[in-house]
What does this fold into?
Amino acid sequence: MTKDSEETSLPIREEEGYDFRFDPNACAACEGACCRGESGYIWMKFPEIEAMAAYLEMTTADFARIYLRKVGHRYSLTEKRLGEGDYACIFFDETKKRCSVYPVRPRQCRTFPFWEQFKNDDEEVRKECPGIL
It folds into this structure.
């Protein structure tokens, strides 16, 4: 490891109540596995919607019309279909294999892999994320 790569490496993350740790430096190698897969929901709260719209230099109304779908009383980002049973977040850049709105990504994305569903199932999250230690 060079001095430059040491300076830019991110610290290992741990969360109380989880039997695993997460190395965010593995994200560069996985090509966005957490951003794609089965169809699902990427929940957004209004402050996140506002921040993402501002980042994209759009009105909140235009952002909502183009990128959100209403599910019950909540909103989720739309998805794009990449193949049979393979979907990705609308903001997943397939060429660069990463999030195109990373600085303003939703809380759901920022907290991955420390989701409640993985608290007692680190085997499942290990299948999804190469950064699990």
